[in-house]
Write a structure and sequence with these properties.
196 residues; alpha/beta; Rossmann fold; 7-stranded mixed β-sheet; 7 strands; binds S-adenosyl-L-homocysteine; binds magnesium ion
């Protein structure tokens, strides 16, 4: 089976099981970015079933990815998928809560795509692993349009809580004097952060 067909099976599985993998335009942006910036070492927080990790690894055969997932069922599914694509040598899958991981790798890119309310924690925890000229990319900055809505319009208290945390993260990024950030309205909203 070719790459495309295997990817389509994963996408179909994600749709059926309601697993929030990256949207097509988001993944297109991310993989182009990796190619353009010649990124080789990536840390991903939030593997789900391995879709974005496999897509990123596919950009170039000398790319290596470490990816962390805390949900066991998803971790096991990701393990299967990585094998199916014969990428075990290039994708290191870690089953744990990312905030429990003490990693001493150095990365050109840290891709944050996990619990939306924890982005500041992920950023602070893994900042030390970012290479001097590296990037931090964060997904779901728009949270399905909720971040742009007035808070009164959002009925769910739970969703309002997450929106507040995403806004806190935007504030944190914009006021971080060591980094500059651009937020793109692509996919579910993607923030690209680099050192000043
Ligand atoms: N990057 C994937 C989608 C990830 S969905 C893709 O586009 O293909 C977000 C995942 O993050 C979920 O599977 C969730 O279980 C995981 N997650 C959330 N918080 C986490 C944490 N603190 N540590 C590790 N994984 C986490
Ligand atoms: Mg996401």
């Amino acid at each position: 089976m070719d790459f495309e067909s295997k990817i389509n099976i994963m996408k179909e599985y994600a749709r059926e099981e309601n697993i929030p993998i990256m949207q097509d335009d988001g993944i297109e942006f991310l993989t182009s970015f990796i190619e353009k910036k010649n990124i080789k070492n990536i840390l991903e927080i939030g593997t789900a079933i391995g879709y974005s990790a496999i897509m990123m690894a596919h950009v170039n055969s000398d790319i290596h990815i470490t990816t962390i997932e805390r949900d066991e069922a998803r971790y096991l599914e990701a393990l299967k998928n990585i094998k199916k694509f014969h990428m075990e040598e290039r994708i290191t899958l870690v089953f744990n809560d990312a905030l429990n991981i003490e990693d001493n790798g150095e990365y050109d890119l840290i891709f944050i795509d996990a619990a939306k309310g924890k982005n500041i924690d992920f950023f602070n925890h893994f900042e030390k692993n970012l290479k001097e000229n590296g990037y931090i990319i964060t997904d779901n900055m728009g949270f399905h349009g909720y971040v742009e809505m007035n808070e009164e319009e959002i009925e769910s208290k739970n969703i309002r809580g997450i929106v507040r945390k995403i806004k806190d993260y935007i504030y944190f990024l914009e006021n971080n004097m060591q980094y500059k950030t651009i937020i793109y309205k692509i996919g579910d909203g993607i923030a690209v952060t680099e050192r000043r």
